[in-house]
């Protein structure tokens, strides 16, 4: 046998620019990351909240002279939200546009939208010509603090989330805090929980800062929200760039703390519970679980649960009690699905103190059930926003992905 083996080493620069009013003519922030031919695509949900945005983008481009050219002479407004990831036709439509205007690998796609829209456009850009530069401008607290600063993209297929996708470091990410101004309150709150999550995993100082701003965060005061989004983005970036596994080749995924429950109850509730709300509940389950096993001190567990509640999240929902035809809790199937999603051995990250974590490879279903029961009987603190309950909100399931 004769084996040739050579390492291939590549270095990527993962850049996140923080700014406000990126499309104000006098703001130079975008010139750091944009040049040449740029194809601009905007999430229609963002435009509904801010109808002047496409014109502002086109105006900024026109004001840059030779440095930047708006390809096609207009800004494209396309469907956003999770359903855009369920429609393969949207991927083809973006490819068709990239082909029509003749973008090459030295041109840029600028995507402005929520995390779902960025995942869709990012996937289409990463696969056209084997990868066109992508500049992402996330427009939700969740995507500015978490998903939008990641190195993944993807669309849903076979009715499974992110079944098709790539790892691709974006050319740059631009977080414009002004884009968050028009977000509905529930969407604005959602991203705060990923800040709490990453603070618990890596940064006790950030956790204390969130505690100190809890009242302002409960009221969704812009400066406090911006602080959490910014530090959350920073910590996610640090973890991706410095954590040793940016392309997730191993089985551990600490940033998915609390997510095995979240990934199950979001869809099983028909998306009545949004991602941030589901993560708050998932984290609460895993915190009480860790405390019951003696891995987390009772005082720490209580301090964290209080903070989650003070900033407006519920820590329990009846969805945790949904049972299947054989009487088993549906949410527990989330453990096996999570293992499949990560690949390899089941690996769950648990928090053992503020800023400390451990990985475990099995979870006791009995103790998980006890943790959920304990959370149900917990007295909610005043100020927790009631979530829409299943009997008041019509459950609409998203369109099924194309076969
Ligand atoms: N690639 C990654 O690493 C990664 C990580 C985490 C999450 N994600 C993905 O992100 C998606 C969730 O993203 P999200 O939480 O941003 O939700 P979203 O993209 O579904 O957006 C929620 C809704 O808000 C609208 N919207 C977006 N910005 C707005 C604004 N500024 N004003 C008014 N409306 C606005 C959207 O049109 C949509 O209808 C999921 O598909 C998830 O899988 C990806
Ligand atoms: Zn998340």
Gist of the model:
The protein has helices at residues 44-49, 53-62, 88-100, 115-127, 141-145, 185-190, 192-202, 204-212, 214-218, 222-242, 259-268, 275-292, 298-310, 333-342, 365-376; strands spanning 16-19, 36-43, 68-70, 76-78, 108-113, 133-138, 155-157, 160-164, 172-176, 348-353, 356-360. It has 403 residues and is of the alpha/beta class.
Structural class: alpha/beta
CATH topology of the largest domain: Dehydroquinate synthase-like, alpha domain
Mind summarizing the main beta sheet?
7 strands, parallel
N-to-C CA distance? 43 Å
Q: Would you report the number of β strands?
A: 11
Shape: globular
Query: In percent terms, what proportion of residues is strand?
Result: 5-15%
Structure description:
The chain has 403 residues and is an alpha/beta fold. It has two domains: 168 residues, 3-Layer(aba) Sandwich (Rossmann fold); 189 residues, Dehydroquinate synthase-like, alpha domain, CATH 1.20.1090.10. It has 15 helices and eleven strands. Strands 1, 2, 3, 4, 5, 6 and 9 form a seven-stranded parallel sheet that branches. Strand 10 and strand 11 form a beta hairpin. Helix 7 runs antiparallel to helix 8. The longest helix has 21 residues. 42% of the residues are buried. The C terminus is likely disordered. The structure holds nicotinamide-adenine-dinucleotide and zinc ion.
């Amino acid at each position: 046998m004769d084996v040739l083996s050579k390492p291939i080493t590549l270095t990527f620069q993962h850049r996140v620019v923080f700014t406000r009013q990126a499309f104000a003519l006098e703001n130079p922030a975008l010139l750091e990351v944009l040049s040449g031919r740029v194809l601009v695509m905007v999430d229609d949900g963002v435009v509904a909240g801010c109808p002047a945005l496409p014109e502002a983008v086109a105006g900024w481009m026109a004001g840059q002279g030779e440095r930047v050219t708006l390809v096609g002479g207009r800004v494209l407004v396309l469907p956003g939200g999770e359903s855009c990831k369920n429609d393969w036709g949207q991927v083809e439509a973006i490819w068709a546009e990239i082909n029509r205007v003749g973008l090459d690998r030295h041109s840029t796609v600028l995507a402005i939208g929520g995390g779902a829209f960025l995942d869709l456009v990012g996937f289409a850009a990463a696969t056209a010509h084997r990868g066109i530069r992508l500049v992402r401008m996330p427009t939700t607290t969740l995507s500015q603090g978490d998903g939008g600063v990641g190195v993944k993209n993807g669309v849903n297929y076979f009715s499974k989330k992110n079944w098709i996708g790539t790892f691709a470091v974006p050319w740059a990410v631009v977080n414009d805090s002004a884009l968050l101004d028009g977000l509905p309150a529930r969407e604005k709150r959602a991203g705060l929980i990923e800040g709490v999550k990453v603070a618990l995993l890596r940064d006790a100082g950030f956790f204390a800062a969130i505690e100190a701003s809890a009242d302002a965060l409960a009221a969704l005061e812009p400066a406090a929200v911006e602080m959490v989004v910014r530090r959350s983005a920073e910590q996610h970036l640090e973890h991706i760039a410095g954590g040793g596994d940016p392309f997730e080749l191993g089985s551990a995924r600490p940033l998915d703390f609390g997510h095995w429950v979240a990934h199950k109850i979001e869809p099983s509730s028909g998306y009545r519970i949004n991602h941030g709300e589901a993560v708050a509940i998932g984290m609460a389950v895993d915190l009480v679980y860790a405390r019951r096993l003696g891995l987390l001190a009772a005082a720490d567990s209580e301090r964290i649960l209080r903070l989650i509640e003070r900033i407006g999240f519920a820590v329990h929902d009846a969805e945790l009690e949904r049972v299947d035809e054989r009487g088993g809790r549906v949410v527990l199937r989330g453990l096996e699905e999570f293992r499949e999603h990560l690949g390899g051995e089941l690996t769950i990250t648990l928090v053992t103190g503020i800023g400390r974590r451990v990985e475990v490879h099995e979870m006791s279903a009995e103790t998980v059930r006890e943790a959920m029961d304990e959370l149900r009987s917990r007295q909610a603190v005043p100020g927790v926003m009631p979530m829409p309950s299943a009997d008041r909100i019509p459950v609409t399931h998203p369109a099924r992905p194309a076969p």
